[in-house]
Amino acid sequence: MSPDIVYLRNSRHPEGAFMPRSEAWISPNDRGFVFGDGVYEVVRAYGGQLFMLDYHISRLQRGLQATGMPALQLPQLRLDMQELLERNGLARGDAMVYVQVTRGEAPRAHPFPSPPVPPTVYMAISPAPDYARVQKEGVRVVTLSDFRWSRCDIKTVALQGNVLSLQHARERGAEECVFVRDGMLTEGSHSNFFAVLDRVVRTHPATNHILAGVTRRCVIDICCEADILWKERQIAETELPDLEEAFLTATSYEVTPIVAINGMPVGDGKPGPITRRIQKRFRSRTKAG
Question: With a threshold of 0.85, does the pTM exceed it?
């Protein structure tokens, strides 16, 4: 059994400390607990190497800035993440590193604490999920009207809308839901959405209506290097019958084909050739670190 060591910096551990998860203590007055007032990142490690870490850290810092929280010390954050892998016996392993930052501990009140209090920083490790079967066979998804707020670009820990939406999909036998806003397909509950029309890969532009994923960024880079035509262009719900291929991207899903949407097959109902090319190149990148 792995050691299950976490990292925590809060009022009890102001300098930050590594400890068994069972010993980690977070105040019931933490604003992440009472308000969901925090942001997070999930970074994947392949062979102990943190994949596309710069992109994850950049997005985390943007989230902190957007929510009015202080920036983190990046050199120390990198060292702490790597040490967390080592302490859990995963210096050469595959894992997911969860990083969460909240506004800290203060009596419950909606305004920001005044004066400001130190943020709570928490990091933990979980096993990398095994999506080999769905990446080979593809998944089914359903669409759902997007009832969430309009700052989907912030990776906030307040995920009630995403949780309810994913549960809606699972209760209908689907792996994921894809949101529809003003007639346009935007993103999944915890993934980005891509489609192929006229042999062009399309995905929603990186606006406030989606969380622009790190794997999404990697796929765009792959399209550029492989001479695969692509566009950041909205995909209308009315275009669903015309999709030739579709796929999801996420740190967890990596690149996962979609074979049916709302019970209707995408293309011939099998993972398409462009998706397969992108999958292959993505796997090569993860092996290269």
Answer: yes
